[in-house]
Amino acid sequence: xxxxxxxxxxxxxxxxxxxxxxxxxxxxxxxxxxxxxxxxxxxxxxxxxxxxxxxxxxxxxxxxxxxxxxxxxxxxxxxxxxxxxxxxxxxxxxxxxxxxxxxxxxxxxxxxxxxxxxxxxxxxxxxxxxxxxxxxxxxxxxxxxxxxxxxxxxxxxxxxxxxxxxxxxxxxxxxxxxxxxxxxxxxxxxxxxxxxxxxxxxxxxxxxxxxxxxxxxxxxxxxxxxxxxxxxxxxxxxxxxxxxxxxxxxxxxxxxxxxxxxxxxxxxxxxxxxxxxxxxxxxxxxxxxxxxxxxxxxxxxxxxxxxxxxxxxxxxxxxxxxxx
Length: 324
Fold this sequence. Notes:
By secondary structure, this protein is of the alpha/beta class.
């Protein structure tokens, strides 16, 4: 279940470090301007998450946290949602609540991210793609639709490139795209600077979560349950997470050189106000993938599935019904 007896809060140390990150991030001025226009406040958008059937399972020796809701595996469409960083699958709760009555749903925290266990060997695009293949086979999931923002996007693309599959459609965005990649300052620090990766490790999970909120949301305000879950889930895992970013440039080359070969119907989504990976990445990706459509989420930041979750729900519904 999502509710927690003892919540973990963002403390002064977390806020101080996140404030420093904001201070050295040029994109913050525009994000703050948009927030003021949106009357952004400290009041959470939702008082608490909707319930999700969270559980821990071990699949092929990898312990993950996941949730599933199967209403009719034969007649209903199946949707698999992959987690973003540094969120957890709890971030999907409003989407889950709306879709669970009409679709079979699966979601999991990627190995090495969220509340799933972490090991050095998990932190690569290829491992994540291989694990997605294992996950789908483990639950006998066929003809599914993949929803994969952020780091989940790398997993989904690696999977469809390297594995024989019967995926019906992809919904990907705000993640690793084409070369040359267009990176705002914070992404450059994580990808290209060992010094800054070390600084993020020292700052810890709380500063990471607070920074992600500052850089990734311009409309949605996470509630205390979400924040607590994100911080707890990533405690002690930031160092390993940074290894994923260190491998990012090399891993992206394999994705880039195979984009034209992906024939699966693909909906690409991107936030208008991106401070993690510029919107131009989504535009370039749309040009490269032969069977894709691009949807820009106006007045949204990096986490579009939160910032405008009602529209994101409609995107999933319309896209899945179109590609049944």
